[in-house]
Hints:
By secondary structure, the protein is mostly helical. It is about 85% helix and about 0% strand. It has helices at about 1-30, 35-60, 65-70. Helix 1 packs antiparallel against helix 2. The protein starts with a helix and ends with a helix.
Amino acid sequence: MPEARALGAEALGTFALVFFGAGAAVVQAQTGALGHLGVAAVFGLVVTAVLAALSPISGAHINPAATVAL
């Protein structure tokens, strides 16, 4: 059961990174509202939030394959 919890946490972290990071890149491409620094900030803030929230559960690799391997 702990493995399932870790994999679920990794899936959630990966989803957050792809959803918000790619979303910021799309917003930048369509509107130009964020700039390169804004897109980079979104990626950095998402990684920081995922590390803070999921590190105790799964190590926060933000990659389910790395979690399985470790």
